[in-house]
């Protein structure tokens, strides 16, 4: 295996992006940030890979239009996944492992505010017996939350504490949408919205774009910003059938965590778009009580589709660069109610 | 001038997906059409509704389909205060995981109750069937508390057809608020004033019409606004002979790339006012604008392009724009 490091990360997130669904206007400054961080130029990048979905904003071939932001002349080697860009990062990581390329920029973008996000997300469900009913994403999480509440797997207090910690930590995150000093009592004082969920239990609808640079050893050391070396990178998936698995658990998270290796992790950025899902993830990953969770505020404070997972990895990498973490874990999720999960571990090296 | 926001317009995306069914789901949908729920018995003996097509343990096709009841108990539920389009009810309702009598795994469906106080885990609910079953999951309109008197027949009233259901049609209707980019918004506002605005890349100096957020060559924002002429040169074209749904002009007619004078990228428009067979590469053409009182922030302000009568442009003048 080749040693590969994260050497650049930039993000933009907002409640509503007043611009085109290709998000080119967001990606151009994001890429400029990456070149400034690394001291590299376009010619240093061997491979580009993006994550986005045309269903999100109703723009066909938006990922092709987004290539404008790269400035693709001479032509670039480029690929795309209709998934969170964390999975685009996986593709780029594999591509570097093959030895075909040494460096890559991975980016994700989405303008969820153009449509009704919780409804659009119904399109990822079983198209025969589920999607025709249009079960929305918030409701599916609500069914999951109640199962755990009534079976005693977690309680309202634990959910409220996740929300309070997230919003409080997000106070210093310039890109967070929902933030501010908050206590669990503040959370529990909020009205129930989609019983059993309060609005704050659910990630805010968010627009945004983000991008990351990774490179193999030999190249990565020349980046100006620093390097967070990837030590484990795995993803697993559970069945699409909502009744085919125990919704209070996430076997795919557990398997991905075991395969990636979570020993010695001192910080974790977990992609939990609903408060109770963080509780599932912490349990499945077996994270010790002293592991710092989501210092960025996490997805409950901003959850731009198709980049929120990559943002977890980027936030963790920033903590490694700054010396706040020696060994960090980042997680991304996709699909309904934590169906598919990705775990990446990274470390600082002297 | 004060900075205006971007232009927005509603956008509808619609498509009816026609999906064929394998034997397992065909039997499930055929059952629904006669108001009968069937589950699949897996190798471990559990009965799952809807039946999975393959056994998740043995990976064998699920062939043992057994009838289950159309009533059962709520295993989990969530309240929907603001239903979205296409859901079983357009007033607040609950989603529930319903464990039907005779099944071991729950079915996801709606439960019609007036408030979240009227539902709880363990509640007994019964299917409310459609009077016009089509062989789809929506043949169960929703579930309702089993103590409510049944108002629909429990057996299919439309049993005239006995053929198996071998497909479903799933309409997808999506509504968006579509925004033009800031550059595109300037372009469309320019058209409303009878101007064609492009933008110049500060690096390569190329002028893009319509303007884009970034120069696709250099990847930098195109910042300088440039007005270009409403006449130019046909670089390439095609003659449309094939009729299609929604066609506004009778074939044959010509769609062409027109390189406007002052622009570095051609844009697509119609060439009318000349026999299709007369249109050629290099032909000089000019915009024919609609009457001013019909103008809006749209490219349709230009009805079409027509020949100017000037001599054809030299091939070398547009060779690099092909």
From TrEMBL, chain A:
<protein>
    <submittedName>
        <fullName>Lipid-transfer protein</fullName>
    </submittedName>
</protein>
<dbReference type="GO" id="GO:0016747">
    <property type="term" value="F:acyltransferase activity, transferring groups other than amino-acyl groups"/>
</dbReference>
<dbReference type="InterPro" id="IPR002155">
    <property type="entry name" value="Thiolase"/>
</dbReference>
<dbReference type="InterPro" id="IPR016039">
    <property type="entry name" value="Thiolase-like"/>
</dbReference>
TrEMBL record, chain B:
<dbReference type="InterPro" id="IPR012340">
    <property type="entry name" value="NA-bd_OB-fold"/>
</dbReference>
<dbReference type="GO" id="GO:0003677">
    <property type="term" value="F:DNA binding"/>
</dbReference>
<feature type="domain" description="ChsH2 C-terminal OB-fold">
    <location>
        <begin position="225"/>
        <end position="290"/>
    </location>
</feature>
<dbReference type="InterPro" id="IPR002878">
    <property type="entry name" value="ChsH2_C"/>
</dbReference>
<feature type="domain" description="ChsH2 C-terminal OB-fold">
    <location>
        <begin position="66"/>
        <end position="129"/>
    </location>
</feature>
<dbReference type="Pfam" id="PF12172">
    <property type="entry name" value="zf-ChsH2"/>
</dbReference>
<protein>
    <submittedName>
        <fullName>DNA-binding protein</fullName>
    </submittedName>
</protein>
<dbReference type="Pfam" id="PF01796">
    <property type="entry name" value="OB_ChsH2_C"/>
</dbReference>
<keyword id="KW-0238">DNA-binding</keyword>
<feature type="domain" description="ChsH2 rubredoxin-like zinc ribbon">
    <location>
        <begin position="190"/>
        <end position="220"/>
    </location>
</feature>
<dbReference type="InterPro" id="IPR022002">
    <property type="entry name" value="ChsH2_Znr"/>
</dbReference>
<dbReference type="InterPro" id="IPR052513">
    <property type="entry name" value="Thioester_dehydratase-like"/>
</dbReference>
């Amino acid at each position: 295996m080749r040693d590969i490091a994260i050497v650049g990360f930039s993000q933009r997130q907002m409640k509503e992006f007043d611009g085109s669904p290709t998000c080119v206007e967001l990606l151009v400054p994001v890429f400029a940030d990456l070149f400034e961080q690394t001291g590299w130029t376009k010619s240093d990048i061997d491979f580009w890979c993006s994550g986005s979905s045309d269903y999100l904003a109703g723009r066909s071939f938006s990922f092709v239009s987004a290539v404008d932001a790269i400035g693709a002349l001479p032509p670039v080697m480029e690929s795309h996944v209709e998934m969170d860009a964390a999975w685009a990062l996986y593709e780029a990581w594999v591509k570097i492992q093959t030895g075909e390329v040494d460096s890559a920029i991975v980016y994700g973008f989405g303008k969820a505010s153009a449509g009704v996000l919780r409804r659009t997300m119904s399109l990822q469900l079983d198209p025969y017996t589920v999607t025709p009913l249009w079960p929305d994403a918030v409701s599916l999480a609500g069914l999951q939350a109640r199962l755990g509440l009534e079976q005693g797997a977690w309680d309202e207090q634990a959910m409220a504490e996740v929300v309070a910690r997230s919003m409080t930590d997000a106070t210093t995150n310039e890109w967070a949408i929902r933030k501010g000093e908050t206590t669990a009592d503040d959370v529990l004082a909020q009205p129930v919205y989609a019983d059993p969920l309060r609005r704050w239990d659910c990630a805010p609808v968010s627009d945004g774009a983000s991008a990351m640079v990774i490179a193999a050893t030999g190249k990565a050391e020349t980046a100006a910003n620093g390097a967070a070396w990837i030590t484990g990178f795995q993803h697993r998936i559970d069945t699409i059938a909502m009744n085919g698995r125990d919704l209070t658990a996430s076997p795919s998270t557990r398997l991905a965590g075991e395969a990636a290796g979570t020993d010695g992790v001192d910080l974790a950025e977990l992609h939990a778009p609903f408060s109770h899902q963080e509780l599932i993830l912490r349990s499945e990953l077996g994270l010790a009580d002293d592991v710092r969770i989501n210092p960025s505020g996490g997805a409950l404070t901003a959850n731009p589709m198709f980049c929120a997972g990559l943002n977890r990895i980027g936030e963790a990498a920033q903590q490694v660069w700054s010396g706040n973490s020696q060994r960090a874990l980042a997680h991304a999720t996709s699909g309904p109610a934590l169906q598919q999960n990705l775990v990446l571990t990274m470390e600082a090296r002297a | 001038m004060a900075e205006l926001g971007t232009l927005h317009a509603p956008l509808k995306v619609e498509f009816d997906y026609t999906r064929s069914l394998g034997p397992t789901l065909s039997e499930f949908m055929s059952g629904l059409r006669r108001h009968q729920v069937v589950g699949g018995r897996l190798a471990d003996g559990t009965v799952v509704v809807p039946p999975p097509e393959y056994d998740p343990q043995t990976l064998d096709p699920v062939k043992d389909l057994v009838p289950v009841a159309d009533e059962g108990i709520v295993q989990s539920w969530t309240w929907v205060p603001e239903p979205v389009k296409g859901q079983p009810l357009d007033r607040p309702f609950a989603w529930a995981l319903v464990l039907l009598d005779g099944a071991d795994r729950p079915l996801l469906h709606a439960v019609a109750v007036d408030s979240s106080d009227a539902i709880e885990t363990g509640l007994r609910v019964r299917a409310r069937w459609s009077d016009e079953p089509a062989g789809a999951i929506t043949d169960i309109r929703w579930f309702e508390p089993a103590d409510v008197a049944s108002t629909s027949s429990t057996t299919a009233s439309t049993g005239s057809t006995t053929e198996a259901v071998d497909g479903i049609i799933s309409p997808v209707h999506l509504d968006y608020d579509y925004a033009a980019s800031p550059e595109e918004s300037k372009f469309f506002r320019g058209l409303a004033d009878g101007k064609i605005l492009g933008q110049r890349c500060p690096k390569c100096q190329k002028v893009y019409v319509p303007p884009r957020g970034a120069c696709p060559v250099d990847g930098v924002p195109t910042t300088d606004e440039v007005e270009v002429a409403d006449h130019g040169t046909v670089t390439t074209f095609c003659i449309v002979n094939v009729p299609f749904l929604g066609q506004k002009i009778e074939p044959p007619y010509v769609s062409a790339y027109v390189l406007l004078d002052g622009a570095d990228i051609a844009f697509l428009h119609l060439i009318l006012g000349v026999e299709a067979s007369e249109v050629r590469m290099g032909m000089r053409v000019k915009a024919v604008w609609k009457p001013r009182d019909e103008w809006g922030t749209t490219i349709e302000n230009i009805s079409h392009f027509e020949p100017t009568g000037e001599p054809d442009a030299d091939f070398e003048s547009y060779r690099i724009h092909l």
